[in-house]
Amino acid sequence: MNRKPIFAANWKMNKGPSETEDFAKGFLPNVEHKTFPCDIVIAPPFVSLAKASEMFGNVSSVALAVQNCSQFDAGAYTGEISGLMLKEFFVHYVILGHSERRAIYGETDEFINAKVLKARELNLRPIFCIGETLEEREGGKLEEVLRRQVSVGLAGLEEKGLGDTVIAYEPVWAIGTGVTASAAQAQEAHAFVRSLIAEQFGADAAAKVRIQYGGSVKPGNAAELMACPDIDGALIGGAALEPSSFLGIIENGTA
Ligand code: PGA
Fold this sequence. Notes:
Helices cover 42% and strands 16% of the residues. With 255 residues, it is of the alpha/beta class. The protein is globular, with a radius of gyration of 17 Å. It starts with 5 loop residues before the first strand and ends with a helix.
């Protein structure tokens, strides 16, 4: 099964509109009028979406994402942003269930599931994040945690199907720490996640679904990780803040 890799920049709470413009000026000459053997996605903060869609809206090789969205369409939900609004900014993907949102903002599997279902209803493509903490891994709970995150987080999608949902396996201990899972550790977890998808959605869906790796991906480790059979791209934080290192990951990861 040939799955097109997907490389997504998760800028987190970095880059307002002017820094977004600076990034775009550095990045665009390398991606404009070019075709890539992968999907390239950028997830700026909400306030930089207008600038990002102005800069990248006409660039067919780059798609936009957001880092969160509401499970509702509109109404009295102070501080929230709905998927309906995001569609006006040419947003195609939405990162949901990132470990920082789980850990810092208390997002539960059920809550993330409501957002996943809403995103699919609106034809936004979830980048659905899962991953274990170091304590869970060392306590032998890796499979139990991934199983719960997948079964609850993707519950109810069976009828409509996974569609263009992307899964991001991000071991929490590797995020922003400089510690990367070894290619063997990552491959093992990805193969397990694919087997969970096969149980829940069938073998065909499992063969098609793209599973990204995230956690301290850099130009120097991208090739080794992407060579693993079940790793289909990367979700990148720190190393995607500079055009040259994001490009380096894309180039090395698709070479
Ligand atoms: P990192 O972040 O690349 O800085 O480790 C990845 C992520 O949180 O998605």
